[in-house]
Amino acid sequence: MEEAFQLAIADEEIEIVFISQLSDYYPLAGVCDPIPSSWSTSPKDLKLNIPYPLWKHPNNPVHKIQFRMMRALDELINLCDEQKNNIDINEDFTQKYHTARWFYDRGLYSCPFWWASMRPNWDPILIYKGANLMLLSAMNAQLALIYLNVCEGDEVFDRFIDYHHRLLAELTKQTANLRNVRTY
């Protein structure tokens, strides 16, 4: 970067200016309101009201399961968040809670959704990598709640595990479909 900047300084045809001066060279042409979309959104996607097709396509069965997993995990984490200031918390809860948050923060990223887009990207292992981070977060969150004798997470955790199982089944099913392989 330093070398490129030095070359720009040496070039008499390039004028170095501050960002605050750019409006002097490129005046505003008007204000526009951005619409929900991304770099990948096509005009067809916009017509179909699918602003984020590579991450949340309504017809993508893997995306549907991923988002259900994410919502269930959010519920578990929120239950733990509600307990963290409880006077009766113990060291076991605190350790599992922090571990759950650690995996939660790392598990909610866009790559697994992108790899599930099938436009044309598809990698079941990278999709599962994100799901596994969510699983580790869910497991630690559920253990944290158990260590406080809080049972409100049981149904949510069971739902998460069901979605996790469905995701594994859907990953193998979609991979077989993409490869034109019959697995039954």
Average pLDDT reading: 94
Please report the number of helical segments: 8
Largest sheet entry? none
Overall 3D shape: extended
What pattern of helices and strands is seen along the backbone? Answer: HHHHHHHH
Unreliable stretches: none
Structural class: mainly alpha
Give the proportion of residues in helices.
55-70%
By oligomeric state, this entry counts as: single chain
Radius of gyration: 23 Å
Beta strand count: 0
How much of the sequence is in beta strands?
Answer: under 5%
CA-to-CA gap between the ends?
56 Å
Domain module tally: 1
Describe, in short, the structure shown:
The protein is mostly helical and 184 residues long.
Notes on the structure:
By secondary structure, this protein is an all-alpha fold. It has one domain (47-178). The protein has 8 helices and no strands. It has helices spanning 2-10, 22-25, 43-47, 61-83, 91-107, 111-115, 124-147, 154-178. The radius of gyration is 23 Å and the shape is extended. It starts with a helix and ends in a 6-residue tail after the last helix. The mean pLDDT is 94.
Give me the secondary-structure topology.
Blueprint: H1 2-10, H2 22-25, H3 43-47, H4 61-83, H5 91-107, H6 111-115, H7 124-147, H8 154-178
Helix pairs in contact: 4-5, 4-7, 4-8, 5-7, 7-8
